C-alpha cells in the first residue's frame, strides 16, 4: 500500500511503524508541519498496560522508550498545608520531544519517509495514495474538510489551563498542588518526565483566571504570576513555556472531541483528530498508540479497506467511550473542585484518587493497603470520636443522627409493595421488612405510607391514618427492635396528581378501571394525558393535608419508628408543589422557588413540631426533573436542600426524576450519586445517595469520598434480603452482627469465602 500519515505526532509516527513492521513493502510517508525537534507539550504519561502493548508490537522502539522513562509510584497531594501521599499507582513519564524523536528515529530505521515543515491543506493533495490517515491533531484540517461526513461533536470545557515546564524536581511522586487565592483556587498537575525537567500544568476556573488578571497578561507576565503563586513549591526554579506557536495567551480550554464517523473513502481519522481524553487522566497518547496498533492489525486481517475501517471504528470506539467517560468524570471533578476543598485532606485525597471511577475502594487497597487502612480509620474516627484499633470498611461504620445511631450505612430504600388492604400492612409487609432488617441493613425504610385514604397511589398502598394501621406497623417495628440492631424509618407521603392508579404489576401510573377517587394538586395539571386532571388545592385543602401529615407523624412516633422521612420527590403532592412543571399557581405558593417551597416547608415544620426531638427527619427530593431548564435542575436542588437544612432537616434523601412524562434520564452505574454529592458538598447537609448502587465497592467509594453519608439500595435488596450480611462476607468483615439463630451459617459463609470465590458459588 501507498500510505500517507498526515501529522507527525505519536499517532502518525507509531501507525507508520506498525504498518511497516507488518509489511516492509508498504510505501509510507509521514507529513508534519513542524520541524523534527519542535514540540509544544512537555511530558507524556503512559501506563504499564500501554507499555505492554508497545513491547508486544515493536520491541525495539519500546526498549528505547522504556530507557527514557521517569518512573514514580506515589501520588502526593498538597492541600491546606498538609501533604497526603498514596502509593502503588505505577506511572511513567517521557518527554514529548524525546518520544517523538524515538519514534522518528525508528521510522528512519524502517525506511519510512518523514516530510517536515510541510503544510497540509487538504486530503486531495494525497489523491495518489491508497490510504490517508488523518492524525493532524485536535484542530484537524482533514476532519474539518469532511465535517459533514465525520460529524464531529466538540465540547469546550470550562476550566482554563496552561502547560508549563520546570527544572524543579518532582521525581518522587505525581504531584497535585492546591493553592487558595483571594479570587479562588488555582492548582497544579506536576510530574517528572526526564532527570532534569517536569511538567507543570496550572489550572483554574475562568472566574479565578479573570479575577487574577490572567486574561490581561502576556506570556512572560503569566509565567511570572504563576511562579509567584507557587514559589514555595518551585524551590527557586523558574517556569518555562514552549507554546510560542500560539497566538496571544498560552492558556487553553480543553476540547472534548468525538466523531460520529471515523472514515470516508480512503481517509481515516486517528488520535486527537478522532477523539480526545482530558489530560487529567493522561490517556491521549494511550489512545493514539493503541489505535495505531489496532488499525494496522485490521488493515492486514480484513479483506477490504472498508472492512478494516469498520472493525477499527467498532473496536476502538468502545475503548474511546470508556476513556471519555472516565475523563468526563475527572474533568468535572476538577471543574467543581472548589466544592470539595473544605474536606479534610485525607478525604479530599481519596476523592481525587477515585474521581474518574476507574479506581475503586478495593483497587486502592491493592495499590496501597496501609494508606487506605489509615483513611478508613480516619473515617471511623470522624463518625465515632475514637480511633479504632482495626479499620473497618466505611459502609459498616455507624452514623448518628440526633439521638439515633444507625449501626451501618446500608439503607433499604423505599419500595412500594402494593400489597395492603385498606392501607393495612399485613403478613407480607411483616416478612418483607423484618427479613431485610435481619439481613444486615442499618436502616430499613418503608414504602411511601399514605397519610389518608385519598392520598394513596394505588388501592394496595399502605397508610397510617387508622388505629389498625398503627398497630400493624408497631408489630413490625417491635420485631425489628427486639431481634436486630437495625433501625426503621417510615416514609410519609401524599400521591397528589399521581394517585388513584393501578397496582405496580398492572399498568403503571394508569387510572383504575373503576372506583377512582378524586385527586388534588397544587394546580390542575394531570400527570399524563391518560390520567385524571386533579383539582387545584384551596387553602382549606392545604390545611387538611398538613394536619393529616401531623396526625400520621404522631402515629409513627407511637409505633416506635426511629426516623421519619417526608416524600417530597417523584411527582407526588409535595414534589408537585416544588417543580415548576406542575406548580402553575399565581398566589404565594407558586412562581419563585421560595414560593414553591412555602407549603412543603410548612408541612415539615408542623411535622417536626410533633416528632420527638431525639429522632431525625429526612426529606426525599428529586434533584433533577431531567427536562433541562424547564424543570428542577441540580443547582435548584442545592437551594432546596439549603432551605431544608435551615429548617432543621437532618438528612436529605437525594433522588431524581419521575416528575414528568417528558423526563429523559441518563442511566448508568451510580447515576444519581452526583446529585447527592453536589447537595452534600455545596449545601453542606448530610445526604443519602440512591440509584443503581449495587456493589459493596460502590458504597465504600461513595462514603469514603464524602459524596454521601448513607447509601440506599432498592433492587439489590429485592433480589437478596441478606445483602448486607453477604457484603460483609465478601469483604471479610467478621464483626458484622448476625442473628444468633444464623451463626452456624455465618461461620460456614466466612470459611467458604476464605477458600475462594468458587466455594461461594458452588463451582468446585
Automatic annotation (TrEMBL):
<dbReference type="InterPro" id="IPR013785">
    <property type="entry name" value="Aldolase_TIM"/>
</dbReference>
<feature type="domain" description="FAD-binding">
    <location>
        <begin position="2"/>
        <end position="317"/>
    </location>
</feature>
<dbReference type="Pfam" id="PF01494">
    <property type="entry name" value="FAD_binding_3"/>
</dbReference>
<dbReference type="InterPro" id="IPR001155">
    <property type="entry name" value="OxRdtase_FMN_N"/>
</dbReference>
<keyword id="KW-0503">Monooxygenase</keyword>
<dbReference type="GO" id="GO:0050661">
    <property type="term" value="F:NADP binding"/>
</dbReference>
<protein>
    <submittedName>
        <fullName>Anthraniloyl-CoA monooxygenase</fullName>
        <ecNumber>1.14.13.40</ecNumber>
    </submittedName>
</protein>
<dbReference type="InterPro" id="IPR002938">
    <property type="entry name" value="FAD-bd"/>
</dbReference>
<dbReference type="GO" id="GO:0018673">
    <property type="term" value="F:anthraniloyl-CoA monooxygenase activity"/>
</dbReference>
<dbReference type="GO" id="GO:0071949">
    <property type="term" value="F:FAD binding"/>
</dbReference>
<dbReference type="GO" id="GO:0010181">
    <property type="term" value="F:FMN binding"/>
</dbReference>
<dbReference type="InterPro" id="IPR036188">
    <property type="entry name" value="FAD/NAD-bd_sf"/>
</dbReference>
<feature type="domain" description="NADH:flavin oxidoreductase/NADH oxidase N-terminal">
    <location>
        <begin position="395"/>
        <end position="725"/>
    </location>
</feature>
<dbReference type="GO" id="GO:0003959">
    <property type="term" value="F:NADPH dehydrogenase activity"/>
</dbReference>
<dbReference type="InterPro" id="IPR044152">
    <property type="entry name" value="YqjM-like"/>
</dbReference>
<dbReference type="Pfam" id="PF00724">
    <property type="entry name" value="Oxidored_FMN"/>
</dbReference>
<keyword id="KW-0560">Oxidoreductase</keyword>
Amino acid at each position: 500500500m501507498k500510505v500517507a500519515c498526515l501529522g507527525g505526532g505519536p499517532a502518525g509516527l507509531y501507525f507508520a511503524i506498525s504498518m511497516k513492521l507488518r509489511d516492509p513493502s508498504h510505501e509510507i510517508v509521514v507529513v508534519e508541519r513542524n520541524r523534527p525537534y519542535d514540540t509544544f507539550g512537555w511530558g507524556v504519561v503512559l501506563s504499564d498496560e500501554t507499555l505492554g502493548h508497545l513491547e508486544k508490537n515493536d520491541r525495539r522502539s519500546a526498549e528505547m522508550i522504556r530507557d527514557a522513562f521517569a518512573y514514580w509510584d506515589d501520588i502526593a497531594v498538597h492541600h491546606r498545608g498538609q501533604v497526603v501521599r498514596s502509593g502503588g499507582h505505577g506511572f511513567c513519564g517521557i518527554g514529548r520531544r524525546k518520544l517523538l524523536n524515538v519514534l522518528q528515529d525508528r521510522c528512519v530505521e524502517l525506511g519510512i519517509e518523514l516530510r517536515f515543515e510541510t503544510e497540509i491543506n487538504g486530503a486531495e493533495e494525497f489523491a495518489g495514495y491508497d490510504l490517508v490517515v488523518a492524525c493532524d491533531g485536535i484542530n484537524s484540517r482533514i476532519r474539518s474538510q469532511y465535517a459533514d461526513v465525520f460529524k464531529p461533536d466538540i465540547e469546550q470545557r470550562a476550566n482554563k489551563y496552561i502547560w508549563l515546564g520546570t527544572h524543579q524536581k518532582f521525581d518522587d511522586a505525581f504531584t497535585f498542588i492546591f493553592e487558595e487565592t483571594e479570587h479562588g483556587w488555582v492548582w497544579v498537575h506536576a510530574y517528572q518526565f526526564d532527570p532534569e525537567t517536569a511538567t507543570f500544568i496550572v489550572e483554574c476556573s475562568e472566574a479565578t483566571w479573570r479575577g487574577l488578571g490572567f486574561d490581561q497578561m502576556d506570556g512572560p507576565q503569566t509565567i511570572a504570576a504563576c511562579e509567584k503563586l507557587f514559589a514555595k513549591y518551585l524551590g527557586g526554579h523558574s517556569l518555562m513555556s514552549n507554546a510560542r506557536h500560539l497566538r496571544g495567551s498560552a492558556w487553553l480550554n480543553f476540547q472534548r472531541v468525538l466523531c460520529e464517523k471515523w472514515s470516508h473513502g480512503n481517509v481515516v481519522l486517528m488520535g486527537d483528530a478522532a477523539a480526545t481524553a482530558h489530560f487529567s487522566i493522561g490517556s491521549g497518547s494511550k489512545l493514539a498508540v493503541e489505535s495505531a496498533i489496532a488499525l494496522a492489525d485490521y488493515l492486514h486481517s480484513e479483506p477490504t479497506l472498508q472492512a478494516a475501517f469498520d472493525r477499527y471504528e467498532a473496536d476502538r470506539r468502545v475503548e474511546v467511550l470508556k476513556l471519555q467517560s472516565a475523563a468526563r468524570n475527572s474533568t468535572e471533578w476538577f471543574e467543581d473542585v472548589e466544592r470539595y476543598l473544605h474536606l479534610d485532606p485525607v478525604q479530599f485525597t481519596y476523592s481525587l484518587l477515585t474521581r474518574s471511577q476507574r479506581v475503586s475502594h478495593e483497587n486502592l487497597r491493592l495499590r496501597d493497603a496501609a494508606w487506605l487502612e489509615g483513611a478508613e480509620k480516619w473515617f471511623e474516627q470522624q463518625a465515632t470520636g475514637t480511633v479504632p484499633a482495626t479499620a473497618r470498611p466505611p459502609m459498616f461504620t455507624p452514623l448518628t443522627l440526633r439521638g439515633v445511631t444507625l449501626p451501618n450505612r446500608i439503607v433499604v430504600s423505599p419500595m412500594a409493595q402494593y400489597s395492603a388492604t385498606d392501607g393495612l400492612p399485613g403478613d407480607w409487609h411483616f416478612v418483607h421488612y423484618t427479613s431485610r432488617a435481619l439481613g444486615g441493613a442499618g436502616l430499613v425504610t418503608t414504602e411511601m405510607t399514605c397519610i389518608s385514604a385519598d392520598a394513596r397511589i394505588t388501592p394496595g398502598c399502605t397508610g397510617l391514618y387508622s388505629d389498625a394501621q398503627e398497630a400493624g406497623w408497631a408489630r413490625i417495628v417491635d420485631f425489628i427492635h427486639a431481634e436486630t440492631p437495625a433501625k426503621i424509618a417510615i416514609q410519609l407521603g401524599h400521591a397528589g396528581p399521581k394517585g388513584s392508579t393501578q397496582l405496580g404489576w398492572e399498568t403503571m401510573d394508569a387510572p383504575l378501571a373503576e372506583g377512582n377517587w378524586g385527586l388534588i394538586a397544587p394546580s390542575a395539571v394531570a400527570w399524563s394525558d391518560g390520567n385524571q386532571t386533579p383539582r387545584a388545592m384551596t387553602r382549606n385543602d392545604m390545611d387538611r393535608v398538613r394536619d393529616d401529615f401531623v396526625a400520621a407523624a404522631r402515629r409513627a412516633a407511637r409505633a416506635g419508628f426511629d426516623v421519619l422521612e417526608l416524600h417530597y420527590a417523584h411527582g407526588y403532592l409535595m414534589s408537585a408543589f416544588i417543580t415548576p412543571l406542575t406548580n402553575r399557581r399565581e398566589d404565594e405558593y407558586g412562581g419563585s422557588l421560595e414560593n414553591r417551597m412555602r407549603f412543603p416547608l410548612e408541612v415539615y415544620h408542623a411535622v417536626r413540631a410533633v416528632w420527638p426531638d431525639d429522632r431525625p427527619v429526612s426529606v426525599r427530593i428529586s434533584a433533577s426533573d431531567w427536562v433541562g431548564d424547564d424543570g428542577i435542575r441540580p443547582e435548584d436542588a442545592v437551594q432546596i436542600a439549603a432551605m431544608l437544612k435551615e429548617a432543621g432537616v437532618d438528612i436529605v434523601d437525594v433522588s431524581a426524576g419521575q416528575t414528568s412524562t417528558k423526563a429523559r434520564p441518563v442511566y448508568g452505574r451510580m447515576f444519581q450519586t452526583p446529585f447527592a454529592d453536589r447537595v452534600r458538598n455545596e449545601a453542606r447537609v448530610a445526604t443519602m445517595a440512591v440509584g443503581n448502587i449495587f456493589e459493596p465497592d460502590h458504597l465504600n467509594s461513595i462514603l469514603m469520598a464524602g459524596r454521601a453519608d448513607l447509601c440506599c439500595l432498592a433492587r439489590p435488596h429485592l433480589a437478596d434480603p441478606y445483602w448486607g450480611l453477604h457484603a460483609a462476607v465478601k469483604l471479610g468483615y467478621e464483626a458484622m452482627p448476625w442473628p444468633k439463630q444464623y451463626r452456624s451459617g455465618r461461620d460456614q459463609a466466612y470459611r467458604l469465602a476464605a477458600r475462594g470465590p468458587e466455594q461461594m458459588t458452588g463451582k468446585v
